[in-house]
Amino acid sequence: MVNDLFTRLGALSDTLAATPILAIGLTLGAFFAGNWLFTRIGRPLWLPPVLLSACLLSGVIAVLALDYQAYQQGARWLTVLLGPATVALGIPLYQQMHHIRAMWRPIVVTLPIAATLAAVYALVIAWALGATPEVLASLAPKSVTAPIAIGITEQLGGSVPLMMGGLLITGVVATLFVDLLARLLPVKDERILGFALGLNGHAIGTARAFEISHTAGAFASLGMGLTGVFTAMILPLVFRL
Fold first, then answer.
1. For 143-191, how does the pLDDT look when each residue is reduced to its tens digit (9 = 90+)?
2. CA atoms within 13 A on the CB side of 37
3. Interatomic CA distance for residues 167 and 125, integer angstroms
4. Is 142 within 8 Å of 164 (Cβ atoms)?
5. How many CB atoms lie within 10 A of CB 21?
6. Residue 187: strand, helix, or coil
């Protein structure tokens, strides 16, 4: 009886693994579990729910000994949704357009400098440590939102999984340091905080900005979108030089 039960469970696992159901179910389960755990431990800035979810999912994949390529193939249906989710951020942008019009001059001046520095310092550090061209191409778009960063990385010849790791770490670190620096300086303008979070921390920073206010979230959406467009235009040109 018991052997028959395990045989059926094994057959069910093999069937699910052959379809996107297992990968999508594990990803969504890790997402909800990460958010629940984040709330239970007091919502610490240094451990956002996306990082918790990623750690939980990595642990489950390791314990179940799932093939990563098979998981990635199954979860690609969720990756497709990244693009529409990013475009949907245009709604808060539209709602806060009057604030954005009032600050277009500092935004135009700040964006090229900050977006360039976000890519350059990572490249310089990685190059100094002996990184290969593939690693450099993977780290260069680390401050850009995932849907755009994936395209940039593939165009530059980098590794998408490595880029996604850099993307996650950058978002967490940027969110933590923007909050710390805002307290030290001190900066209380929600527009500045939001723009800095979106520019440096992409989607993770934007999620943090929406926790501050809708105005901060709108400016974070603006910073994230403009950084993505600027980086997508500049990085391929720089890598051809």
1. 888 878 888 888 888 888 888 888 888 888 888 888 888 888 888 888 8
2. 16
3. 16
4. no
5. 12
6. coil
